[in-house]
Amino acid sequence: MSLAEAAQAVVAQFEYTDDDVNRGVKEFLRQMDEGLSKDGTSLSQIPTYVTAVPNGTEKGLYMAVDLGGTNFRVCSVKLNGDSTFNITSAKVPVPKELMIAETAEELFAFLALQIKAFLEKHHGDHFEQHIRRRMTMSAPNGFRDENVFRMGFTFSFPVQQMGINKGTLIRWTKGFDIPDAIGKDVCALLQTEIDKLHLPVRVAALVNDTVGTLMAHSYGAPESSGASLGAIFGTGTNGAYLEKLSNIKKTLVGEYDTSTGDMVVNTEWGSFDNQLNVLPVTPWDVALDQQSVNPGLQMYEKRVSGMFLGEILRLAVIDLMKNPDISFFRDDNSGTNDLRSTTDIAETSPIYKAWAVDSTILSIAAGDHTPGLVLLRKGLDDSLQIHAAAYEDARAFQAIAGAIGQRAARLAAVAIAAVVIQTGKLANPDEMIDVGVDGSLVEHYPYFRTMIQEALSKVEGIGSEGAKRIRIGLAEDGSGVGAALIALVAAGMEKHAKNAAAKAAAAVAAASEVSEKVTPAE
Ligand code: BGC
């Protein structure tokens, strides 16, 4: 068997046909429905207590922080009310030891310190003024309520939400593992650390990055009736959409506004089909899952998102390298290598180390159309320390990487198709269906969106006409602007609750006045 044939046999295992896509969509719709009716299902379908998407006229200055993967980001966002915004932000990497810390406090204390540093640097006046005022004010925490920044907290892990700013962590994903935090309210954890530093900040809203993406895309596209879906295809993957309240059959414990008849639902689709009813399974998917920190969970995410594609590729490539019948990244003399030297793989190459292959090499492979695959061979050299790879080897590598990327894009189409069908918007032939997407994979993997569109056109109930109406656009800054927008919604809810409480207190006072007046007459 030639190398090309052996590589083709690997490629074939990643094939995900139109029939597979359609089976996937049907099962996705079934699991969505199941998730709306009870807790503890594979697709969590978490109600977010956000009951409307913005229309671009929202205004104000809000803070937003974002913890979702490798970095922590702090920003302040000025919403201008005309679909535009100004954002100031700072980003720091989350130290590895805090991702797997003993206690949640260690991580959250670090986050609060970053918020303090940001306020000092970018809102120094406001900060100083309020620290001074704090000494003289009698308000709780020493701040006048109107001077406290409302902050949206983008926390991109599965959380059971109990209200717009309250939610307990269900499980960690994407390599985080702090068991102490499971079951705790993550807003309270952050607020406690913020209060220890006496910062004028209130965690007003808890936001999944997909919900932020949905909100930001709606704010920025006022000509449409709002985005139908916000989705992330980055380190992890997930989606959020607007669902009819009447379809949410499970109990909603928190308070929310019923007037729109809708609520944003965070699907947590990374865990779609953990039971593997329809997801494709290759030997490399099995091996990856077994060596992961959460075997049996996030099974869809493990086939689709950036954190995993590099590792699937690594496992498949290593297997092929071990095949004694073929020569892959091995040549005995420079005559077999068009670079006139023999291939050499450094002992320290990421190809020999679990989780060490970054998925950017898949993007490089997919984007290389040069005749000699010079870009990919340079990429193999630079990032995998595979020096002087032969053209045939690079070609085989490209074919396998391409198959993994294409399967991921077609699986991504399964989730998008199911959500679009669920929203019912396909029924109106004149309506465009906006999908806001964000994440390194969808931004940088060449033709990822094109491959999704192609697969969408093959879905029964969508077809090529329907697919043309599904407009997949990059969402601008979901975790910043989206979180700010939800903080704004939350501030509105606070005001509403305060007015209602004031009205209730006035009614009680009036009633007691009446009874006082009545009593003497009796
Ligand atoms: C998390 C989601 C998140 C997604 C994208 C997943 O691992 O479970 O909550 O939205 O990653 O960041």
TrEMBL record:
Pfam families: Hexokinase_1, Hexokinase_2. It comes from Staphylotrichum tortipilum. Keywords: ATP-binding, Glycolysis, Kinase, Nucleotide-binding, Transferase. PROSITE patterns: HEXOKINASE_1, HEXOKINASE_2. GO terms for cellular component: cytosol; mitochondrion. Pathway: Carbohydrate degradation; glycolysis; D-glyceraldehyde 3-phosphate and glycerone phosphate from D-glucose: step 1/4. It comes from the Eukaryota. Belongs to the hexokinase family. Residues 8-219 form the Hexokinase N-terminal domain. Gene3D superfamilies: 3.30.420.40, 3.40.367.20. This is Phosphotransferase. GO terms for molecular function: ATP binding; D-glucose binding; fructokinase activity; glucokinase activity. Residues 229-489 form the Hexokinase C-terminal domain. It is an enzyme of class 2 (transferase). GO terms for biological process: glucose metabolic process; glycolytic process; intracellular glucose homeostasis. Its EC number is 2.7.1.-. The keyword Phosphoprotein does not apply.
